[in-house]
TrEMBL record:
Pfam families: DSBA. Residues 3-204 form the DSBA-like thioredoxin domain. The lineage of its organism: Bacteria, Bacillati, Actinomycetota, Actinomycetes, Micrococcales. Residues 214-249 are annotated as: Disordered. This is Putative DsbA family dithiol-disulfide isomerase.
């Protein structure tokens, strides 16, 4: 079973959703048969490399949200994060465009350390007040997860992995995602938002059950009337006899 997760480093619910999904997956009986692929998304591509203001000012001045509403939202998200063992500090957040950091994640993916790099960046942004738009910090993260810092700097100074990030974003939009986190299971089920672990657990069980059933294109169980469908070349389909628990046709 394959699960794709679109996420933005600058999205507070994405870190919470990651923890909740991982809780459900860890308890899932068939977790060893689940392939998880993290994909890039940007909530605000128009954000400058760095915004000269706080997260509260950004949302209230740029997005037009009342400051009181922003603070209440931060309090609520902080409480939810604490429930997942995360220590959010919105007062220390440095507002920056996440595109370059997503390019680093694609580099990390090629090195097999995507999850580690993602954890570092999310924690750095929401818990430590680090600058996800700063190449020095991104090189530091790269080194911590086992990527040569000089190589990371070189790559981030080019356009490498730009196409991959844009492709991820375009694909999410094509699938109908209008926010993140956005989870897609086997390209059959979509789950939007940082749902409770119980919701993810139910989705995993449902999708796994569906993945184990072989679709029947014709005959009993196909959902169509094989005795009346088609003519001519369909005779073999209409005349196909089967045996079942109660005997044979």
């Amino acid at each position: 079973m394959r699960i794709e997760i679109w996420s933005d480093i600058a999205c507070p619910w994405c870190f919470i959703g990651k923890r909740r999904f991982e809780t459900a997956l860890n308890d899932f009986e068939h977790k060893d048969d689940v392939e998880v692929e993290w994909r890039s998304y940007q909530l605000d591509p128009s954000l400058p490399d760095h915004y000269a203001g706080t997260e509260t000012e950004y949302l209230s001045q740029v997005k037009g949200m009342p400051a009181d509403q922003v603070r209440q939202m931060f309090d609520h998200v902080t409480q939810q994060a604490a429930g997942e063992g995360l220590n959010y500090d919105f007062d220390s957040i440095l507002v920056a465009n996440s595109f370059t950091a997503h390019r680093l994640l694609h580099l990390a993916k090629t090195q097999g350390v995507l999850n580690q790099a993602q954890e570092e960046l999310l924690s750095g942004h929401f818990e430590q007040g680090r600058d996800i738009g700063d190449v020095d910090y991104l090189a530091e993260v790269a080194q911590r997860v086992g990527i040569d810092a000089a190589e990371a700097r070189r790559i981030l100074s080019t356009e490498e992995f730009t196409a991959e990030v844009k492709s991820d974003i375009a694909e999410a939009q094509a699938l109908g995602a209008n926010g993140v986190p956005f989870f897609v299971i086997d390209r059959k089920y979509g789950i939007s938002g940082a749902q409770p672990p119980e919701a993810f657990a139910q989705a995993l069980e449902t999708a796994w059950g569906e993945s184990q059933r072989l679709p029947v294109l014709a005959g009993p169980g196909s959902g169509t009337d094989s005795a009346t469908s088609g003519t001519g070349g369909d005779e073999a389909v209409r005349d196909g006899a089967v045996c079942g628990p109660e005997g044979c046709d």
